[in-house]
């Protein structure tokens, strides 16, 4: 049995989770709300993406459609250079390079639909 404190909409709950055999779904049993909400834990830092050492993944910040791809693999870019134009909610958003480097791969094409968090471009 594992015990967790979970905060939902500002209300803290003490929850116990029973471990079962492989393949069986665990069952959570909520207890009474805890008097004071627990302090939120610090978010872990994102790990480096798989691939070449030092690679940087430029991800889609929101779901949308790719209107244009401004770079190709092997291109040198400076921090702030436009890599991709992403249309979301009828607005064109410029996705820019977070740092100076070289484009290792372009993972999208003009007209593609992407979800939030999809890797658009990877850089070295």
What would your notes on this structure say?
By secondary structure, this protein is mainly β. The protein has a domain at 56-123: OB fold (Dihydrolipoamide Acetyltransferase, E2P) (Beta Barrel). 0% of the residues lie in helices and 48% in strands. The strands form three sheets. It has a four-stranded antiparallel sheet, with no helix packed on it. Strands 8-7-5-10 form a four-stranded antiparallel sheet, with no helix packed on it. Strand 2 and strand 3 (27-33) form a beta hairpin. The radius of gyration is 21 Å and the shape is elongated. Mean pLDDT is 79; it is low at 42-54.
Low-confidence region ranges:
42-54
Give the strand order, joined by hyphens, for the main sheet: 4-11-9-6
Order of H and E elements: EEEEEEEEEEE
Largest sheet: 4 strands, antiparallel
Helical amount among residues, as a percent range?
Answer: under 10%
Radius of gyration: 21 Å
Number of helices in the DSSP assignment: 0
What structural category arises from helix and sheet content? mainly beta
Shape: elongated
Strand content: over 45%
* CATH superfamily descriptor of one domain: RNA polymerase II/Efflux pump adaptor protein, barrel-sandwich hybrid domain
- Which CATH class of one domain applies here? Mainly Beta
How many β-strand runs?
Answer: 11
The CATH architecture category of one domain equals: Beta Barrel
CATH topology of one domain: OB fold (Dihydrolipoamide Acetyltransferase, E2P)
Please tell me the overall pLDDT: 79
State the distance separating the first and last CA atoms.
44 Å
